[in-house]
């Protein structure tokens, strides 16, 4: 079975990447961009609403 992933997009620097859901905190916790180190709620890094819905299914 494939591991579920979501696409992330930093709202500050524009870095775009994909990561496994198991490597992420819950959507309301703080998350840090690995590129520019911006800190925001993880939900704000979701590339699309679909990615956010997918993340919330695994919380």
UniProtKB/TrEMBL annotation:
Chain ranges of the DUF7836 domain: 1-59
Record-linked Pfam families: DUF7836
InterPro entries, A to Z: DUF7836
Domain of life: Archaea
UniProt protein name: DUF7836 domain-containing protein
């Amino acid at each position: 079975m494939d591991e579920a992933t979501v696409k992330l997009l930093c709202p500050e620097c524009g870095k775009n990447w994909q990561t496994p859901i198991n490597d992420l905190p819950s959507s309301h916790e703080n998350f840090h961009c690995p590129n520019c180190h911006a800190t925001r709620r993880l939900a704000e890094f979701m590339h699309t609403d679909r990615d956010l819905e997918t993340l919330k299914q695994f919380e």
